[in-house]
Fold:
Amino acid sequence: MTYQDLSKAELEALHASLSERLDAVKAEKLSLDLTRGKPGADQLDLSNELDGILNGFYLLQDGTDVRNYGGILGIPEAREFGAELLQVQTDEVMVGGNSSLTLMYLYLNMMMEQWQTEDHPPRFLCPVPGYDRHFAICEEFDIEMTPVPMTASGPDMDTVERLVGEDPYIKGIWCVPKYSNPTGCTYSNDTVKRMAQLPEIAGENFVIMWDNAYIAHHLTETPEPLHSIMDCCRAAQTTDSLVILASTSKITFAGAGISFLATAPEQLSLFERYLGIAMIGFDKVNQLRHVRFLKDQTGLAEHMEKHRQILAPKFNRVLSILESELGNAGIATWTQPEGGYFVSLDTMPGIAGDVIRMASDAGVKLTPAGATFPHGQDPDDRNIRIAPTFPPVEQLDKAMSVLVLCIQLCSADHLIKA
Ligand SMILES: Cc1ncc(COP(=O)(O)O)c(C=O)c1O
Structure:
C-alpha cells in the first residue's frame, strides 16, 4: 500500500511512530557522512604499491629524466596509456596533474578569451541532475547555465539540438557520458553520435566537455560499452570541439593521481601554450609511477575489478535498504547504477531540502539539496545524491536507515498537510 492510499488518521499515526523512531536515533548522537564521492581507505590501499615502485629508476626509454623540468603534455608512456583509455590517438592526449577538474577549469579559462570577444556572454547546456563542480566553474566564469533534462540514454538530445541550433551563444555542454554523476546513466550510441554532430549546428568555438570521470568504474561483471566520441567526431569533422577528460582519482589515489585531456592536436597545442605561462610541466615522476603500476588496459581492468569487489556490496546495501523501506511506499524513486559513484534519489516534489535538514539534525550529513542543479536550485526540490563509497558498510547501513526514516517522515508530513 502506498502512502497516498492511507487516510489522514492513518498518516498521522504513522507520523507519530516515525517521529518516535527519529527521537531515538537523535539520542544516539550519530556523526555520519554520505556526501562526497570519495574512495574509501580500503580502496586507496589497493594502490599502495605506487609508493616506491620506481625504486630509483627515473629515466624514460628516450633518456628523459622524469625528476627534471619540462614536458607539459606528459611523458610518452603515460600519453600512450591515456590514448588507449580514451580511445584517441597519442598526439591527441596530454597527461596532467592529480585533477581533471583543474584541466577543465583551465581549458574553459582559455576558451573564455575567445568567447569574451563576442557581444553576449557565453551559455552552457547543463544536463540535470549533474555534477555540482561543473556548475561552479560556469558560475566562476559568469557562463549562463541552461538546464537540460537527463533521460535514461543521456541528455534529452531533441532539446539539446533545438537549443544549440537556435542560440549561437551556447558555447558548450557538460557531459558525464559513462555512469553519469549522479544518475549513473551511460549515454546510448545514438546520443554519442548526435553529440558529436552538435558543433555542426552550433555557433563558433563550441566545446563538448566530455568528462569521462567514471570510464573504468564498473559495478557489474558485464559493463555497458560506451561508443567512442572521438571516432564519431572524426566522422563528423568536429574533433576540435571535443574535450575528453578523465583521471585516476578513483582508480589509484584521489589526492595523488594523474589526469588526461584529449582533443584535436591543434587545440592541444593551443592549450600547451596557454599552460606554459603558468607552469613548466606536471609531475612526471607520478606519471611514470602510474604507468609502471597500472601497465596497460588489462592491468587497469584487473585493478578496477578489485575496486568493484569493494564497492558492489556497498551499492547493493544501499539499493536493498531503499527497496525494503521505500519500495512499495510510492514516495521516492531512485537509480540502479551499473557503475560510478552515486545513487540518485527523487523524493516527492518539495521535500528534499526538509529531508536533508532532518537527516543532518539526526547526525547524517547528505549533499545539500539542489547541489545537482545550476546555482544549487532544484526547481522541484526533490533530488538527493547518495554517495555510498566512503563509509564502511556498518556506517552506511546506519546512515541509510536514517535517510529512509527522514524520507518517510517528511513524506507523511507533506501528505498530512496537503
Ligand atoms: C563527474 C566528475 N568529474 C570530475 C571529478 C573530479 O575529478 P578529479 O579528481 O580528476 O579532479 C569528479 C569527482 O567527483 C566527478 O564526479
Q: What stands out?
A: Residues 50-300 form a domain with the Aspartate Aminotransferase; domain 2 fold (CATH 3.40.640.10). The longest strand covers residues 144-151.
